[in-house]
Protein 1
Amino acid sequence: MELKQMLLPFVLALLIRYEYGLPQHPPDHMKALLRCLPVIVLITRILESQNGNDFSLRLGAGMGFAAAGDLCQLYKDEHFTHGVICFGIAYCLYTVAFGLKVDHTCLAALIGLMAATGCYVINPGIHGVTQPVALAYLLMVLLMVWRAVAWWKNSRHRNSSCAMYGAIILAMSNIILSTHIFQFPVPHSPLLVTSFYYTGQLLIAMSAL
């Protein structure tokens, strides 16, 4: 029942977002708010269903920062770095929600190898003040994936499964976006990025139900 109460408003919010909230130049303030509507719906449903426990509060706060980062992307000429910072904080809050334990060190080593590879690949395309911010952001994304997968390996229930798949799909959206920005054009990248992004956020929100 809780899943249905989340899924239906979320799908409706997505339809409104794609019908009326697509970016334009210069950005319209109402379209900017509609762009954040799907994530706002998820925040509302998380906080309602869990009555403000620590896990739901951390996820809700993380999604709030993600919504702020999404807004910054509309004004990316002036606020690209601010958007990256907001998304990084969001993923840091997700990481804390999933649990900060030093376990599954082999998995952590694999994530570290992926981080090093990612740094090596994207580093030549990043210049100026954005470079340390982008690399710290990459680390936050991979830490989130590590803790989500570790939670799933420890418990293997529906909540941890949703968190793991959501974190991995969010990471995939970031891989596509960073490849498109810093390496080479990815065909249909806006559609791919937003599809993976909203799917990942929905699955992470479902981990609180």
Protein 2
Amino acid sequence: MGVMLCLLFFCHLAKVSLSFPQSFDSDFTFTLPAGQKECFYQTMKKDATLEIEYQVIDGAGLDVDFYVASPNGNILYFDQRKSDGVHSIETENGDYMFCFDNSFSSISEKIVFFELILDNMEPEGDSDSWKDLLPGGELLDMKLEDILESINNVKGRLSKSNQIQGLLRAFEARDRNLQEGNYDRVNFWSMVNLSVMLIVSCLQVYMLKNLFSDKRRSRT
């Protein structure tokens, strides 16, 4: 009987997974041109959670303006000229807008990384529909609720690990861009200093040569 129960459980695991509390995450990296603004939209349900984390990984100043607007147009969060930020929102039904604004910069473009995490986005319906797949009496022998809870915990932790890895990659990209920028600036000013030293050395040699040269003409 236990074998039959396990077979039923694994055969219908894909259907059962629909009853998990859904958590979605996605990340994007885009180029924000100088003097422009980019906006994105996310459709949310009531009593869900939307978490937005962003980071400027390249560009002069490593800063950008950022704001989030609710479906009715209210500004929920506004960050002015920041390099990174994290915001969590308890949502209602509608489309949420979040924008990155680089209009204050007329020269430098920015490379922006951001990640969205959507919690409690499970589809509507009876979350206990999976129980119809099993004979009623066998539910007492094995607590599938505990198994589903464990699987959901593992899924949540894997999702969190993936999120942290994405953020670490963004930090690494920003640090690498800073190091490469510093390397280029050091090389540039080193060449400038070397050029100045060569020019000054040539001028000194020329002036010393003229100082000790005898310009008097001999008369015969």
